Predict the structure of DUF6193 family natural product biosynthesis protein.
Amino acid sequence: MSSEPVPADLYPDVAAHGSLAAALQAVAADQGLSLPLTVTPSDPLRHATITSVVPHRHSAYVAAWHHARNWGIRGSSNNRLMICGNTKDLRELPSVIHGWAEGASLDDIGLAAPFDVLTGRFEVPDDNPSGVIASQWQWLLKTAGDADWPQYQALIEAAYAQPRLRSLYPFTSHWALSFSSIPHSPFSPPFVSIDSPRGTDAYTIREWWHKPVLCQVATPAEAVDVAVARIPDDLVSEVPDVHGPQP
């Protein structure tokens, strides 16, 4: 097993500035931008924190990879990931950092970014449940479309098309689709978990991803029917009144 490179050896240009935060600020200055970045004392050459003027954008950072020259940026709003991307060019980061810090819309941040950073979610500043559910569905639809897994994408789209499921918070564990009425506590307790096949196998229905198999069905439509039939009577079953942009 190869040993991890010394950060100063892998990132000598960053080391020359003393920290990733300082290196990014220098690159940004060349682009006419000023960035609110804070050095991470425990790993100054590979990590920097971003501060935003928007209160609900409470967590964002840039982090360098440990074994190859690459940088990732992550930004969360109300504890949900909103921007996420990687680049090999430090010069591509300032526009994204600046947009996030100064309160630019996610769409504008995505347009300014030279690399893909949008997760598919939209921000819900007041954290209202219906908005959070709708945002989560848009994220799930985008990730399904990016997954190169036709059966999984078909399941997500079929579930979204069903109003009673669309009113619930969708989440995945081990790629198995489940639902909750409580966006802030999605893992308590699930009533159905659907595994998508690869190839020509069947969709597998469980109460939870590691529980015994309840049944197997051939199509996503059948899997959705099973899920709807298992919705407990006490769960909300109205369509959310907030919907994000369609993928």
Residues 7-112 form one domain. Confidence is low (pLDDT under 50) at residues 237-247.
